[in-house]
Design a protein that fits this description.
The protein is of the alpha/beta class. The chain has two helices and five strands. The strands form two sheets. A three-stranded parallel β-sheet has the order 3-4-5, covered by helices on one side. Strands 1-2 form a two-stranded antiparallel ribbon. The longest helix has 11 residues.
Length: 85
């Protein structure tokens, strides 16, 4: 491990961004499992990716979870402008 998130949580510097994964299972599960097999310890997703479907896929795809695997998600998208921008 060579990077600390918040000074404490150790992950490898190269992570896996799940934004472009399809939201249905199938090949996406194999891709996630292969990334973990290759040593990825940080997977990044967001509720915005498929309205939560991406997060659901990542909840099951790498199971059983190897020690040290971190799956992160982002929140906070808000439309505040007059036209919903």
């Amino acid at each position: 491990m060579d990077f600390r998130i918040g000074g404490q949580l150790e992950v490898r510097r190269l992570g896996f961004g799940a934004m472009h994964l399809p939201t249905e299972p199938g090949p996406a599960i194999a891709v996630v499992r292969r990334a973990v097999e290759l040593g990825v310890t940080l997977i990044d997703t967001a509720h915005l990716y498929g309205g939560g479907a991406n997060e659901e896929l990542l909840a099951s795809a790498p199971y059983p979870y190897p020690a040290g695997l971190v799956i992160t998600t982002k929140v906070g998208v808000a439309r505040t402008g007059p036209g919903g921008e």
